[in-house]
Amino acid sequence: MNCFMANWAKQSIRLLKHELKRGELTIIVLAIVLGVASVFSLAGFSGKIKQALLNESTSFIAADRVLQTSRKIDFQNITTEPIALSRDQITQKSQQLNIKQAQQVLMSSMVFAGDVMGLVEIQAVSNYYPLRGELLVNYSTNTNELAAVNAPDLGTVFIEEKILSLLEVTIGDVIDIGDSRFVIKAIAKQIPDASFSVFTSGAKVIINIADLEKTQLVQPGSRLTYKYLFSGDVDAIKALSVWLKPKLNDSQRWYDIQSKQSPLANALNKAEKYLSLASLLGIILAAVAVSVASRRYAQRHQSSVGVYKAMGASFSHIRKLYYLHWSLLSVVSIALGLLVGYVLAQLGLYAIQDYLPVQLTLDSVSETGFSGLISLGFYPLIIAVFTGLLCAFAFAITPLKELIATSPLVVIRGASLTPSHQMFRMRVGKFLIPLLALLLLLFVFSNDLMLSVSLLIGGILVSALLLLFGRLLMKLTRNIGTKAGASWHLALANLQRRAQANSVQLVSFTIAIKLLLMIIVIRSALLSEWQAQLPEQTPNLFLVNIAQNQVDNVEQFIDQQGITASDIYAVIRGRLSAINSDKIAKQVSKEQTDGSDNGRQGVGRELNLTWREHLPKENSVVQGKWWQNDLTDANKPQVSIEQTLAKRLDIKLGDSLTFQLGSEVITVPVTSIREVNWQSMQPNFYMIFNPQVLADYPASYISSLYVSVDKKDQLQKFLSAYPTISVIDVDAMIAQLRKVIDQVSKAVEFILVLVVFAGCLVLVAQVQASMEEREREIAILRTIGAKGSLLRNSILLEFVALGAIAGFMASVAMELTVYLLQSHLFKMQTSFHFEYWLLGIVAGASFVGIVGLLSCWRLLNMSSVTLIRRTM
Amino acid sequence: MLEDKQLSLLQDINLAVSTGETIAIVGSSGSGKTTLLSLLAGLDLPSTGEVYLKNKSLHQLNEEQRSQVRADHVGFIFQQFLLISSLTALENVMLPAELANDENAKQQAIDLLAQVGLSERANHFPAQLSGGEQQRVAIARAFITKPDVLFADEPTGNLDKQTSTHIADLLFDLNKQFGTTLVLVTHDLTLAQRCQRSVEMQGGRLINDQNLCDTNTEQLSGNTKTIQAEVV
After folding, report:
1. Domains in chain B, please, with CATH?
2. Alpha-carbon distance A110 to A106, whole Å?
3. Does the beta-carbon distance from B67 to A869 stay under 8 Å?
4. A303 contacts on B by Cβ (under 8 Å)
């Protein structure tokens, strides 16, 4: 085959083989490998994690997406009111997109077991329910064995445990729901989409939706909630969303787990942002490494190209030779990168396997055909190869072009002599092509052109500032250096002398350290925010329906047992009927309700109202005054409203709100707007009145408690005396939430490691890039009799100073960026991190110092003769 | 160009070198020896004047065409050896032959390495060779295409005296064997003495042209403003 291969190809392959073997391409290969590997593993890993987390968390709504409406959408044979969207349309579209569907209908109803009756929540579900998560039932009260099931068989029901005592029944007994009779088949232990809301009435009875008709419970005017559940792959669900959303009317809500206002959704959204940001920064670092390494590559090859040209090699011969060489190098590196990335992602996924839902591994086995290996999908592969190619070519094309344009005169003159007419073009290209490539990368990863452009422009400005600032600092240190010892003197003089090269190095060190610091700081801020969200002793039980005359006894019990509890809140049901005498229906347009998942309930249905003297702990007033702080008007009737609802309904301070409480109507002015921490697992209210308004209305009461396992028995005993008090146990939910947050934290840590590695590589590549010049200097210093220790120290100190300056600048830049990110992207409380400044400076100094010294170690230990021979 | 003032590196040069001749260009540092060499070899172009090599007017050719002339007729030996560090000694020697699409490149390279006494070192990389050995590889590389003209820029400049003598012997032996025209730039008068002719440069001008075979000294005419260099 060799006979047919062109000479340039033979020479190119030969060059590549030798250089790879001799380790001359290590840095560049590593840079591309790392870029590709991190993109591949990050995209694959974080994609899988995200998917797994979503799978896990979507179980909270039993589907990927839910269409919820109070009016039925043309559902089988039950009479319906005509609405724009027909069920057939949806079914057709879902089938087209290969999306699974399930339905459920929710309503409150009385059920009877002989003479005993009770109010329960009927959940009529179709056969495929649940689409996500598991409905776990227990077929016998004697065992704890749980089975994952779908809808109950016709004529049977699953009931929640508390119904056993409510109706005095057991498994196998018969209960009456409406006009129909059902056999209790099992006890529902875990209902995936059990409501987060503590105000949902009674225990659940699950029936098959096909049985609903014969119960005759659905009558004109019945208050029903219809939920249409959808699940399928991400793109299909997206497509369905795009199709469906414009068709929805005011009474229909379309939501996924992330649009639910829950601690989980919040954590997931932030984790997703963090993972994307970290991946992006990792890629930028890898690209910088490639860029630095390719520049060095071009410099190193200049004399070879000169020799080739002197010997008569044509321009096209050299171009083909080097393009092939570079292409082969890139292909080898990208392939290696994919392999490393795949292994990394597998290791990462393996490490957190215990935390991941089973579904992930099961799916994957069938996807790959290899048991135990998890397919990362095509997207990460494509994006990784794309990144690799972009890094290898866009960031290296200018140095390569310069290399190919090398004049043969370098064999005589020994220096690069790029023709002057090419200088400007090349200078522009030198920056323009990588910048465009970076923009493209940013855009591909963020899918947001504005964000990408502003990041890039911001980056350029910051780099320019850093460049100036760095020069200034180096000059300053030079002045200090003249007063220091010989090693310092030499080190700082070197630093200053190489100011131009060093300031470029400095900027890349700074950027690398800054990005690393940023990732570490945001990570720990996120983790602590998540931790704070669910501190130890987060309430795990809610007591609802506490009657007025039971409040003292409950409080006494809580005190006696030393249980951590929230205050006890009065709950009075009422409907907001008008704002400033405008009927509420007119106030709410479609635009205002779009995306609002909480407000509409507060408008269309009854709200839970409460009254308080003091501002609740998890609330803060953002506008107006709390009545306690306003002594003059404290006794006038007034209401405080939660800020998102206020915004949604366009309610301002001073507006008067009219509420319908049973047959009575009250009108009160808004005197404060509150921010509420909805994630606090405390009873929270949209509307809080002052005592003067509501204190005399009959109310039921609610409280949240943290009850440890050992105290649960006592609570049970206490509550047996008060059968009307309902207990809502959110332990399982909290446990699941903790698990999800654990997983997110693991994912975040994995990505941190990769980004740190990418940062280190940039540092090494950058130090390597200055190696030839250093070699020459060391040779000269050796020749004039500098001692080994002086050389060693001066090199170490030069790098230490460089690293420390970079670390300092990185800390300042990090602080600014983190502030912006926290306030704008993550929407969390901003914080300052001076402790990380020290980390930045110390880590910068020690890392750059050590890497620099190690890279020069070989040179330092060479004999003077060898050194001189190598460099002269 | 230096700060808007034109700096003439070479002036009034009229030099012709005949086929098979060995000529040394001597002179102090900065006298323009190396610049003249790069013009003669077509590595650079004069701003005015004419340069001919094997009847080709180099001053009228572009970079690519000059490359072709070099590939067809020229060999080089440099002071810094300029071996390609990532290729073995054998591969370095083969390179010019490969560029000329010579199918027998490898065998010729092996033979030439044997002639310069480096058969054993064929698969070593430049960094594994001593300075003298590297220059021997460079000599072998220079002769592999049997060039019509060999340009040598201070070929012994980086070597000790003993090695220098050895390298010079090799150079002149091979030169004789292949009948190559040799243009040698050197400081080393002993080395220059081994050539048939020696020209001396000073301040960018040729001031002395000496035929070393009959020691006749002939003053070059200093009137022309152009560079005239011819190698036939």
Report:
1. 13-231 (3.40.50.300)
2. 13
3. no
4. 82
| Per-residue confidence (pLDDT) for residue A868, from 0 to 100 | 61
Q: Pick from A10, A412, A872: which is nearest to B34 by CB?
A: A412
Q: CA of A328, closest CA in chain B: separation in Å?
A: 16
Residue of B nearest to A414 (CA): B80
B16, containing H or E segment: strand B13-17
Q: How many helices (H) and strands (E) does chain A have?
A: 28, 23
User: Is it the case that residue A670 has pLDDT exceeding 50?
Assistant: yes
Pick the last residue of a domain from A674, A709, A729. Answer: A729
Taking contacts as CB-CB distances below 8 angstroms, the residues of chain A near B63 are 315
In tens, the pLDDT along B38-64 reads 888 888 888 888 888 888 888 888 888
The C-alpha atoms of residue A647 and residue B48 are separated, in whole angstroms, by: 82
Q: Is residue A264 part of a domain?
A: no
State percent of chain A over pLDDT 90: 5
Give the whole-angstrom CA distance, residue B191 versus residue B183.
12
Structure ipTM: 0.79
End-to-end CA distance of chain B: 32
Give the one of A14, A408, A414 whose C-beta lies nearest to B91's C-beta. A14
For residue A321, tell me if it sits in a domain: no
Nearest CB neighbour to B87, from listed A15, A312, A414: A15
Spell out the residues 6+ positions from residue A266 whose beta carbon is closer than 8 angstroms to its own. Answer: A533, A679
| Residue B107 φ then ψ, to 5° | -65, -40
**Residue A862: domain span:** 458-534+731-872
Q: Which residues does chain B have within 8 Å of residue A409's beta carbon, measured at their own beta carbons?
A: 38, 43-44
Q: Which residue of B has its CA nearest to A409?
A: B43
Mean per-residue pLDDT for A217-230? 80
Contacts of B37 in chain A (CB under 8 A): 412
Mean pLDDT of A670-682: 79
Chain A nearest-CA distance from B64, in A, is 6
Q: What is the mean pLDDT of chain A?
A: 76
DSSP string of A146-213, one letter each residue: -EEE-SPPTTEEEEEHHHHHHHT--TT-EEEETTEEEEEEEEEEE-TT--S-TT--S-EEEEEGGGHH
- CB-closest option in B38, B63, B158 to A315: B63
Same domain? A526 vs A576 = no
> What CA–CA distance (Å, rounded) separates A742 from A205?
33
pLDDT at residue A75 in the model:
40
Does residue A104 share a domain with residue A190?
yes
Q: Report the pLDDT value the prediction gives residue A347, as an integer from 0 to 100.
A: 77
**Degrees (nearest 5) of the Cα angle A113, A115, A118?**
60
Domain count, chain A: 3
CA dist., res. A155 & res. A169, Å (int): 17
pLDDT at residue A401 tops 50: yes
CB contact under 8 A, A313 and B99: yes
Place of tokens 């598991």: A134
Range of A160-169, A175-184, A395-404, A445-454 with top mean pLDDT: A175-184
Q: For residue A198, tell me if it sits in a domain.
A: yes
Residues of A in contact with B98 (CB under 8 A): 7, 10-11
pLDDT of residue B223 exceeding 50, the answer is no
For residues A689 and A761, membership in a common domain is answered with no
What integer pLDDT is reported at residue A817 of this predicted model? 77
Let me know whether A736 and A722 are in one domain.
no
In a domain, residue A523? The reply is: yes
pLDDT digits (tens, 9 = 90+) for A505-535: 777 778 778 777 877 787 777 777 666 666 6
Among the candidates A198, A231, A264, a domain finishes at A231
Q: What average pLDDT does the segment B84-98 reach?
A: 86
Residue A399, preceding peptide bond in cis (omega within 30° of 0):
no
Q: Tell me the two tokens of residue A721.
A: 């005396």
Q: State how far the Cα of A448 lies from the Cα of A443, in Å rounded to an integer.
A: 6
